[in-house]
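Q: What would this chain look like folded?
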Amino acid sequence: MKASELRELNNEELVLKLKNLKEELFNLRFQLAINQLDNPMRIGAVKKDIARVQTVLKQQELEDSANA
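A: My prediction, written as structure tokens:
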């Protein structure tokens, strides 16, 4: 997922996306623990997506406070 795609979403959609990504990361870690993980590279990708969403949320928050 690209940051430009995330910037087009509103805050509620970003929070929902963040929640879904965190659930996916939990499930991937659980699969890793029980040796059923097919693609271990997916964990890193999900972590980066979480960071991207959090960054966009913070940027929007700072823009809103600057405009207010």
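The first helix runs from residue 3 to 7.
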